[in-house]
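chain below, 749 aa
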Amino acid sequence: MGNVRTMCSKSVRKSRFLTAGTLASVAVLTPVCAEAQDVKDAGIAEIIVTAQKRAENQQNVPIAVTAVSSDTLEKLGIADTSDLKNVAPSLNFSTAVGGFGLPRIRGVGSTGVGPGIENPVATYIDGVYISSPIGALTGLSDIEQVAVLKGPQGTLFGRNATGGLIQITTRKPSDTPTADFRIGYGNYQTVTASGYVSGGIAHNLAASIAAKYENRDDGFGTNVFTGNEIGAQRQFTTRGKLRWESDDAATAIQISGDYADTQAVSPAFRPISPNVLNQLAGGGRRDIDSDIDPVLRSKQYGGSLDIEHDFGSVSLKSLSAYRKMRLYVAFDPDGTTESDWAFIPGANGPAAGFAHGYIIQNTQIDEQFTQEIQLLSSDSGPFTWVVGGFYMWSKGLFAPGYSVNAFQNAIGLYTEVNSQQTLNSFAGFAQGTYKLGDATNFTAGLRYTHDKREASGVRQVFSAATGEPLAVQTPPLGVEENYSDTFPRMTWRLSVDHRFSPEVMAYASYNRGFRSAAYVVANFGLETALSNKVLKPEIIDAYEIGLKTDLFDRRLRFNVAGYYYDQKNVQVMQIRNGIQTVYNADGAKIYGIDADIYFRPVPALTINGGVNWTHARYKSFTNAQITIPNPSGGNTITTGDATGKRLQNVPDWTLSLGASYEMGPVTISANYYHNDGWPADPDNRLRQKAYDLVDASVNFDLGGGASVNIWGKNLTNAFYFQQLGASNFADNGVQANPRTYGVTLGYSF
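prediction:
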């Protein structure tokens, strides 16, 4: 056992510089290390993390982390970030209008979106912070590993990490020629193809390129009004990298670029109660009955420059990145049709197309530039530290947003909103760890963030017949609004950890995190009870104790943590007339327990799982916007008291349990996920019921690098909603995917 640990340690030291500076939180040990350990004792391989921006054994880090390897992602068919909840129970993932990702960790997350509004669970791809919820919903291709860091990360990461982090690490280019190809076919006439190629192209210079294509030609349901299928989707992603390293491996420069395009007949927006016309949608529960077929078009692209240099006693890292995300959606918010109405798309905009029906049509664009500098001390000595700075510029806008609501439709009008907000954010941070003897560490960190936001916008009413603005606009319609303010904030981290033995470590921590304030540009031009223009910053004080263990000669890894959060200025969403707004609740109280288990009783069998219990309640919410069903259909939105009610989209219990068994060339894998349900609105009137998911695969290694994988997801065909909400139109929901299955052929070398 001692020899094996020495081999692993050498592997880590050799790659320390290449991983310590990265923001990605997990780096699984090299295959050589894992394989050596398998031969010696069939124990669980160590996982090296950079959750504190230096390479450390996950079991030594006083932070709760769930790490998912690329092998697990592939076996269970986890294709995008929304699927990660199946293997990380502390994470719950919902969507908004099909194209926005809304992750929650331990009850902390978002229900509302809009230009410039960032998620409180931060998403990082290869160290690059993704500010927009458009980018949070992303495909997982050419992945090395994914990790979920639980709880506020207010010092080293800081930017809107009040709930935690989802970190995605993609493969680095290698001098060794490497290739991986996959082609598959599944039900709903789904065709998939992916490829990854990497190798050296010059002295010390390596390159890689990855691409993935998926076309689901059949939809999951039908629009019974038009007769067309809904839920079909076509997606293409690609990423390329160039990496240069100096002869002495002291300097590394990596350039990355990526592009993603998604086109879908979604969201499948269906009322589940009588709407304002006192109608229910026709068809089955996976069908819709709408004036138009929904449309979703999403494009994302970006690039980064990563420069690292090791001076010996310290290492320096610079990470520069640019990203742009665009989402266009069009759908019918009332979810039913009138036989004497017709929708005729406009040739150059919405003018002719908005003559009839209730239609929402929005284009949101989010653009960002980030620059981070890190300086890290070496691992020698009792005191280790990291200092750095972070700058972010971002711009979010409607370009534009259109809507026809229940009142304007009767007189042939529609509204158009053109609004935007920009952000300039500066932050400086420092964190240090001091060894108090051989077994105890004390960590303290501090971050100061200064945000400046500027916003402007105008809402006008147009004639659907002519496409021209009305000559007379009732103020504030037609009047441009302008806002500007600064939002400074200090956050921190304190922790102490103690190793009782080589197998057992305990820790306690106190963290403060915050989610940036923002302007609600969707409300510009409105003067109603829901037309607040500014969101206060969300503040969390988080207290946590945890235990990390490797037991039974490293065959059982059991990590458990208990937490208590005091959350202020919770950001909450409400929809009126198809317009989504976000406002603040005074505060919430959250506490619970989560645990991860990894068990390898024999070399051929691996069992892994997790459980999370979260008690998340509003401790003060007297201005809650609640909905009351009307006897004639639809809902009345009024102000009520939701104090003591459950937070939206937060299940009390989640559980996952997976296993993988190798029988020679055949590997059988399965995963079970349980969610006990969650409320969709502040007064908890509308709820998603408990549901269970079962995924499985059988992989055949054919030799010579070839393989066949037979897979299935949601094998019990459980029905549940990925989005659920109440508006004045009706209670409505967007269905999650039904049972899918298929076969994938692979070849790699």
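The chain has five helices and 44 strands. The chain has a mean pLDDT of 85.
thats it, cya
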